[in-house]
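Need tokens for this chain, all 177 residues.
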Amino acid sequence: MIEYRDAQPHDADAVALLHTQSWRQSYRGSFSDAFLDEEQPAERIRVWRARLGRPAANQLVRLAFEGADLVGFVCVYGAHDPQWGSLIDNLHVSSAAKRRGIGASLMRQAGAWLGPLYAEVAIYLFVLEVNAPARRFYEQLRGRNAGVATMETHGGAIVRSCRYVWPGPAALSAARP
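Here are the structure tokens for all 177 residues:
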């Protein structure tokens, strides 16, 4: 049975580990091997310790557990961008737990959290253009591809990313694949 809860500072290392594993599986060939294998683990630990140790007022990090194992998380920032709205900065589900509705549930929970605080604010996220499974997933959740941008990302990689958008929290919290 999957249980959900908000992240706490002591969850930072587990979140960083899942984030690292997810990027290694999904972004090999898009990010440098040196970054993924050598730099990323420590970089993600620093990021998640900071995010969970000193959370921004507009930040939600929601976790999914199966027993004691972290199997997924979402990180969202309300009203992050004046043009595009609230940012879903991360959504990751362990490879062993994919296709069980965990990612969709985390996205709906993010929409439900955003609703009372940012009801009239759109939602967006970026996903690498080459990540076809993730793009299909967001499209099943009624996300609309609003265009592709080329950007420099972690480890100095130049990638093409699609910006997926939802008109607001109600659309996301009601989305079903």
